[in-house]
Automatic annotation (TrEMBL):
The keyword DNA-binding applies. It comes from the Bacteria. The keyword Acetylation does not apply. Keywords: DNA-binding, Transcription, Transcription regulation. This is LacI family transcriptional regulator. Pfam families: LacI, Peripla_BP_1.
Amino acid sequence: MPNRITLHTIAEAANVSVATVSKALNDTGQLSAHTRRVVLNTAKELGYEKSKGAIALRHQSGLIGLVSADLEGRFSMPALIGAENTLGASNHAVLLTNSRGDPKLERAHIDQLAARGVDGLLILGGETDSRPPVKPNTALGIPIVYAYAPSNDPDDCSVTCDNTAAGAAAINHLIDRGCSRIAIISGPEHYLATKERIDGAMAALRKSGMRPAAPTRYGNWHESWGRTAARLLLDSGARFDGIYCLNDMLARGAIETLLARGLKVPQDVAVVGHDNWAVTATECQVPITSFDNNLQEIGRRAARLLLDSIRGNRHRGVMKIGCSLIVRESTLTKPR
């Protein structure tokens, strides 16, 4: 039979007095939010079972810590809006911090938020590459949900977009528009978004009994690479009537090259992008058919899962939100 966990056991492990442990577990006396979190987390780790859920509920502060890796990024703001709207509707106040992609600064912000007694943490990344989880001794047992950049710990709860399904849907859309020879222009090969979109695209091509019209062109995410990659495709002699570009900047650059070479979009070559960045997709010479990552929905869903975790219903794994196809002129009139 295992040894019984006593207040003395918890006090020794947490490096506090027995009186402090008693106050934390029984909701009495004056303790800082940080000390209370340390004691409750230590008790949980040791397997102490006394009314942990009830204690946590009594100490809800109504505060949520939101740590963003990039407040100025175009992927972060829509997700922040979705999360804040959901949390505000549940009468929670949001304490917003910006880690600027610096892990040390992120840890410092999390420690400060924990000291303020936040009920939960929502950690928003600037890209979909997975990230290391927050260290348990840093978060002090506070419920955490990761948005956009998922945790690489399967026990954590994360919400991101389904890039694989979007890649497949892009190819299927081009096929539905009559394309039979489809080329792919990509950003950097090492990004998870690149791998997943390419995987989805290749699977859709195989399912349709097709192969890429040319080897995938990898480069950066900039419009200039879209122009260069399209020029290389044309100069290679490859025959193609559709191009899947992995973001809208690439698609815009590719369209500019196609038009400069006397080709019509979409009559000669249909083009699909990704990200639905309005300033690029709608102001291109030929407005770009694109995929929207539904970032506000990612923020909303992450906030709902966090609120549920705060109520004691812990979630695990990665939830993927589908991307929405936004059809514009770059594929609209391609005949079958």
